[in-house]
Design goal:
Number of strands: 4
Distance between the termini: 5 Å
CATH topology: Alpha-Beta Plaits
CATH class: Alpha Beta
Shape: globular
Order of helices and strands: EHEEHHE
CATH architecture: 2-Layer Sandwich
Strand order of the largest sheet: 2-3-1-4
Number of helices: 3
Helix content: 25-40%
Largest sheet: 4 strands, antiparallel
């Protein structure tokens, strides 16, 4: 199984809680539309330190092909388009479980 982890930090610190909720819902909905996505968890950060990220997602796929299908899936692209203006920084890790 291939695990895909992404952490996102938003530019607007005041709006981060609202943006985080919207992003969480958009991401969770992908489980219903992206066939190659086996499971996804989305967490909203409760840590208030400046170095903390706002949202973390963990997504599981059978293989790299499945992850690549997810990356270009139209519903996932909508999430990426929504995030473009709001994101300050992202961190990504993909590894075999």
């Amino acid at each position: 199984m291939l695990r895909h982890i992404v952490m996102v930090k938003f530019k607007d610190r005041d709006a981060a809680p609202q943006i985080s909720e919207k992003v969480k819902q958009m991401l969770v909905n992908l489980e219903e539309t992206v066939e190659s996505l086996n499971h996804m968890e989305v967490g909203i950060n409760i840590n208030t330190r400046p170095a903390a990220f706002d949202v973390v997602l963990t997504a599981d796929f059978d293989n790299e092909e499945g992850l690549n299908e997810y990356r270009v899936h139209p519903e996932h692209v909508k999430v990426l388009d929504f995030l473009k203006e709001a994101v300050e920084k992202t961190t990504v890790v993909d590894y075999w479980v």
